[in-house]
């Protein structure tokens, strides 16, 4: 579990390093942000299917609702702007990492699943929020996309705090 969090952190750290060398364009940033949201929707849906703990299920429902809503806003924005999100190595690595995490968590149940899910949510939000604030938002050129990412960052920072609170309660 900790190793998976390190994997996500490594992917986004590589993205930040690559961004410093060659800043991602708005189409790549949109794809990375959308991919990150889709990953959290999938994790939330898995938690809804597997967890029996009300607080975990409520949190998972919040993740599905909020990340799907932000992704819907992002899709509407890129359509309005006539931009096609551009797949990139960061998005691909995030997707690969997430698939492995979902497979790993699928083998768990009960308290072990809840702990793995919440621990990953804390690490994932921490890492994505850092990437948003340090790499993606600063490199975004379009004001509307930048505003959406900033709004997302505020919401996702709240998600991180909520996940930290729930995870601390499981220990």
Would you mind describing this structure in some detail?
With 171 residues, this protein is mostly helical. The protein has one domain: Ferritin (Up-down Bundle), CATH 1.20.1260. The protein has six helices and no strands. It has helices spanning 2-21, 26-50, 54-81, 89-106, 110-139, 143-170. Helix 1 (2-21) packs antiparallel against helix 4. The chain is elongated and about 45 Å long. Mean pLDDT is 90; it is low at 1-6 and 16-20.
What CATH calls the topology is: Ferritin
Helical residue percent band: over 70%
Corresponding CATH architecture = Up-down Bundle
- Number of extended strands: 0
CATH homologous superfamily placement: Ferritin, core subunit, four-helix bundle
Major pleated sheet? none
Count of separate structural domains: 1
Uncertain stretches: 1-6, 16-20
Descriptive terms for the model:
171 residues; mainly alpha; Ferritin; 0% strand; elongated; disordered N terminus
Q: How do you describe this structure in short?
A:
The protein has 171 residues and is mostly helical. Helices cover 87% and strands 0% of the residues.
List the helices and strands and how they pair.
Elements: H1 2-21, H2 26-50, H3 54-81, H4 89-106, H5 110-139, H6 143-170
Helix pairs in contact: 1-4, 1-5, 2-3, 2-4, 2-5, 3-6, 5-6
